[in-house]
Specification:
- The strands form 5 sheets. Strands 9-3-2-13-20-19 form a 6-stranded mixed sheet, with helices on one face.
- The radius of gyration is 22 Å and the shape is globular.
- By secondary structure, the protein is an alpha/beta fold.
- Helix 3 runs parallel beside helix 8 and helix 13 packs antiparallel against helix 14.
- Strand 2, helix 3 and strand 3 form a beta-alpha-beta unit.
- The longest helix is centred in the first third of the chain and has 25 residues.
Length: 483
């Protein structure tokens, strides 16, 4: 292993910076037409990712008479929905602890199991709508590779049992059992989360867009929302610079406006500090020989990670690649979203080294793709769904990187709220969650950069010394504003 890590793989230099999932789409992406002129509908949804499209899909199934329009700046799945790790994981940021503070452990368990059901719902809808998204429900394996990580897994299992999760839902594995799932280096223990699946996210989001259209929703791509004014969304269709000023701006009017913009909320007037756009980056190997997986594991295509604080995530794709990602230098001053940052070579080198150190069996594999994107983090780190029937304003998202399954539950819940229904989902404890805004600059930039650097140091020290770094827990508490 040491020899394999002496240098970087030459293939990083030649790897495509187009996300693997988008690069493999057949047919290739071809954006739908933009809005042309003012438009009046019943519901307008801003954002053509998972959240917006699930909302549109369920709205049309619940109320086929509603005229529903989805507005997307680029093309459906351009953002995190087409770039993520493909984890339809039965987890929700903060669900075990923070939501229990808002309600009770019983309600927290109900929310967790609703996300579990969303994993299955994605599979059900994909089958019913003919969406071939490589869905495989193999669970999630997280391995502890230091003693402090193993201790945290024991504590997490205790908390899971306290709120009522079963062995089938989450169980602790010893080192040998964990290595059967993922034969990584230095394994101490593992957590196996049963209610999880992997998908090809671009196939899922583009298939979902087609399913929403088939259900009667209208999708307008190449249409940038710039702000809100009462019951209208101001939009600027792309490619209008040569048109008269009267045609460069128009508005979509509706009694209900749903914002599903995640990290791109920062582009809307007055909302720059509502959600923090944080970068995550991924690499993908060439298709690997089937016999190599006899050594690596991942037989049932579980998603996988180790339990360091600097998040890692990976999956074995349907064509036997490893797609692997991690967070790194996460944030640009002023909440800027800079496309060139997504292909930061230094960060992709670091991700490759993490993968090769974890799984030296693949250290010599060619890297065919490297890419990145932004996810959205609210100040309290709690995803939420809220709808005000008096104003017709709805907001959903803030998934902190765990949005593939959660967005299905959020979109389904939002549709039920808009339709005035009282269901098992509309009373879940994440409904109505609000977060205060992030701090102004330069405090925002200094806080995020410094805390991430310290968390990285904590991971390194725990690996080197085998002792828990208490400073990291304090940083996490500070970041969450006391939660």
């Amino acid at each position: 292993m040491a020899a394999a890590l002496e240098g970087d793989p030459w293939s990083l230099e030649t790897a495509s910076i187009t996300p693997l999932w988008i690069d493999r789409l057949e047919p290739p992406v071809s954006p739908r037409p933009a809005v042309e002129g003012d438009l009046d509908v019943d519901v307008v949804i801003v954002g053509g990712g998972f959240s917006g499209l699930w909302t549109a899909y369920y709205l049309r199934r619940l109320e086929p008479s509603l005229r529903v329009a989805v507005l997307e700046r680029h093309y459906c799945g351009f953002g995190a929905s087409g770039r993520n790790g493909g984890w339809a994981v039965g987890e929700l940021a903060g669900s075990f602890h923070d939501y229990a503070r808002r309600a009770s452990p019983t309600e927290s368990l109900r929310l967790v199991r609703a996300v579990f059901d969303a994993v299955d719902e994605i599979g059900r809808v994909s089958a019913a709508e003919g969406i071939d998204c490589d869905y495989a429900k193999g669970g999630t394996i997280r391995v502890a590779r230091t003693d402090p990580q193993a201790d945290r897994q024991v504590a997490e299992i205790a908390e899971a049992r306290e709120i009522g999760l079963t062995e089938d839902e989450m169980r602790l594995l010893d080192a040998d059992q964990a290595r059967e799932q993922l034969n990584a280096t230095e394994v101490r223990s593992g957590l196996l989360l049963g209610p999880s699946a992997v998908v090809d996210p671009a196939k899922l989001v583009t298939g979902l867009a087609c399913a929403a259209e088939a259900a009667g929703a209208e999708i307008y791509e190449q249409t940038r929302a710039t702000g809100f004014d009462g019951g209208a969304v101001q939009v600027a269709p792309e490619g209008t610079r040569d048109l008269p000023m009267s045609r460069r701006r128009c508005e979509v009017r509706a009694p209900v406006i749903v914002r599903a913009t995640e990290a791109y909320t920062r582009d809307l007037r007055g909302l720059r500090r509502d959600v923090l756009p944080v970068y995550s980056r991924m690499i993908a190997t060439e298709p690997l020989p089937g016999d190599l997986f006899e050594d690596i594991g991942l037989a049932d295509r579980p998603s996988f990670a180790d339990d360091r604080r600097m998040v890692t995530y990976g999956q074995r794709t349907a064509d036997n690649r490893l797609a692997f990602g991690a967070t790194g230098v996460p944030y640009s001053f002023g909440s800027r979203i800079v496309p060139s940052t997504e292909a930061h070579m230094g960060m992709h080198r670091r991700i490759w080294r993490v993968l090769a150190e974890m799984l030296p069996q693949v250290a010599d594999a060619r890297i065919t793709h490297r890419w990145g994107g932004v996810l959205g983090i609210p100040r309290n780190w709690l995803p939420g769904v809220r709808f005000d029937p008096r104003t017709g304003e709805g907001v959903l998202g803030g998934y902190v990187g765990e949005g593939v399954a959660a967005s299905n539950l959020a979109g389904r819940t939002m549709a039920e709220l808009v339709c005035g229904l009282d269901t098992e989902r509309t009373s879940l404890p994440w409904v109505g969650v609000r977060s205060r805004r992030w701090e102004p600059e330069p405090l925002r930039w200094l806080g995020v950069r410094a805390s991430r650097a310290l968390l990285g140091v904590a991971d390194h020290r725990e690996q080197r010394t085998g002792r828990r770094e208490r400073l990291a827990s304090g940083i996490a508490t500070l970041l969450r504003g006391g939660h």
